[in-house]
Design a protein that fits this description.
Blueprint: H1 2-36, H2 45-55, E1 69-72, H3 79-84, E2 88-91, H4 97-103, H5 113-124, H6 128-131, E3 133-139, H7 143-153, E4 158-161, H8 170-191, H9 197-223, H10 230-239, H11 245-264, E5 276-281, H12 290-297, E6 301-305, H13 325-337, H14 349-361, E7 366-372, H15 376-392, E8 396-401, H16 408-423
Parallel strand pairs: 1-2, 1-3, 3-4, 5-6, 5-7, 7-8
Helix pairs in contact: 1-2, 2-10, 4-5, 5-7, 8-13, 9-11, 9-13, 12-16
The structure holds iron/sulfur cluster (2 copies).
Residues 112, 114-115, 142, 144-145, 282-283, 372, 375, 377-378 line the site of one iron/sulfur cluster.
Length: 430
């Protein structure tokens, strides 16, 4: 009997070891591809080091010692509140093909790969960045996230936050303010820190510094859309998920300085004749970088990223009009939902408006609309975007993908044809 148990134990250990090995091999491969793209800024290294630390060296989040981690699964969970309560938010949306394969046996066939990857990580239980989280905060945004919340709650200390699906009525906001107060109580159980005006305002100040650097970066990109490869930019934005905000701010400050200096000298990362592409749609989470890499390998310049792993994640600062604990909590509820362009809301006019604005800002010539297989909310909105862009004469293509590499060649052909279409004028904007 003992023999049987130990054989079972070692089989499980071998399975976990194989998982870690395969995960880090994929992460190394994609990190290399990112690093091998020409014109990589020197200041990108700390960001790629973070991705290496978490996905290759299999370490936890990059943060000061002793700060507990809280896993979050959406940009609608305000990081300010978690920092205020003495913890660090770690965004755990999964991009791993290896974890997806594990999760594929747990979730229904048509669930999205991002949620399957999260379930895979959870069930195998070996990734330090997941394991060290003392609380999981899951927003109820789409059906996949709802079922994920239930799955995690059976295994981990979890809170499900009910995000309103409308946001124009005061009642919607009141509901989310109440959710954030409940969340703060859960955080107190983990950290022993009580909610206070002083802590909230300190945390808002710290995240505002990151938002300042990001706005500086966005401004630079508007002025010089070709100053950095979009894939490099996406790696820097992905790293925010696993880095303490004060460190990320420093890294971003250095990246801005380097890009600004190069742009002033006329050193661009892409040639002027490369078609300028905006990517929008389902999140693109490291190491699932096949689409941004293909865009740049096939001769496009990825100048803008509207996904929630891009600037959307840290774009909107809270507008605090009432300087009190409640005033800040209301400002956080507001900034997390009202300006958000995620199509999980009933009304998605803001999404169209924001994308139209980005098209102008970055002088975009074509849009790649990314749909993760099973991600219905983004798929629904495709038609609206197609109609709006049709009015402007800007080409758009819907690219569906899954978490594996079997579709890479097919994606390559479609992306190449799309870029050629823009390049040689058929259907491109004037
Ligand atoms: S796609 Fe929408 S619901 Fe999903 S993580 Fe991003 S913002 Fe949240
Ligand atoms: S919004 Fe899409 S990608 Fe995000 S969890 Fe839901 S189905 Fe998956």
């Amino acid at each position: 009997m003992n023999d049987y148990i130990s054989r079972q134990g070692s089989a499980e250990d071998r399975r976990k070891a194989r998982f870690l090995n395969k995960s880090s091999t994929t992460a190394i491969k994609y990190l290399r591809k990112i690093e091998d793209l020409p014109h990589k800024p020197d200041a990108l290294k700390p960001f790629t080091d973070v991705l290496k630390h978490v996905f290759v060296d299999m370490q936890g989040a990059v943060k000061p010692q002793g700060v507990p981690s809280v896993g979050t699964y959406c940009v609608m969970i305000p990081p300010e509140l978690i920092y205020a309560m003495g913890a660090m938010p770690v965004k755990l949306c999964g991009g791993s093909y290896t974890a997806f394969n594990v999760g594929d046996d747990i979730a229904p066939r048509d669930a999205c790969p991002l949620v399957k990857a999260i379930m895979g990580f959870e069930s195998i239980g070996v990734m330090p960045v997941y394991q060290e989280c003392q609380l999981m905060a899951v927003p109820i945004t789409c059906d996949c996230k709802k079922k994920l919340a239930g799955y995690l709650a059976e295994r981990r200390n979890t809170i499900a936050l009910h995000v309103p699906s409308g946001r124009d009525r005061d009642e919607d906001m009141e509901q989310y303010v109440r959710e954030l107060y409940l969340f703060s109580q859960k955080l107190t159980e983990v950290t022993d820190v009580e909610l206070s005006y002083e802590r909230l305002s300190w945390a808002c100040g710290m995240t505002a510094a990151a938002q300042y650097e990001l706005s500086r970066f966005i401004e630079l990109r508007r002025k010089y859309p070709l100053a950095i490869k979009g894939t490099h930019y996406m790696a820097a934005m992905n790293a925010i998920s696993y880095t303490h905000i004060s460190l990320w701010t420093r890294y971003m400050h250095n990246l801005c300085d380097e890009i600004e200096a190069k742009a002033k000298r006329g050193e661009m990362a892409s040639k002027e004749n490369r078609p300028r592409i905006l990517i929008t749609g389902s999140p693109i989470v490291f190491p699932n970088f096949k689409i941004p890499l293909l865009i740049e390998e096939m001769g496009g310049a990825l100048v803008a990223d509207e996904t929630c792993m891009g600037e959307r994640g840290a774009y909107d600062p809270p507008a605090i009009v009432d300087q009190s604990t409640d005033g800040i909590m209301r400002a956080l509820a507001n900034k997390s939902t009202r300006p958000c362009t995620c199509p999980t809301f009933v009304d998605n006019k803001r999404r169209v408006y924001r994308i139209m604005q980005m098209l102008k800002d970055y002088r975009v010539q074509g849009v790649i609309y990314h749909v993760l297989r099973g991600c219905l909310v983004y798929d629904y909105e495709y038609q609206v975007m197609e109609e709006e862009l049709g009015k402007l004469g800007i080409p758009i293509i819907r690219i569906e993908s899954d978490y594996n590499e079997e579709d890479v060649e097919q994606l390559r052909i479609r992306i190449e044809a799309f870029i050629e279409l823009i390049k040689y004028g058929k259907g491109s904007s004037k």
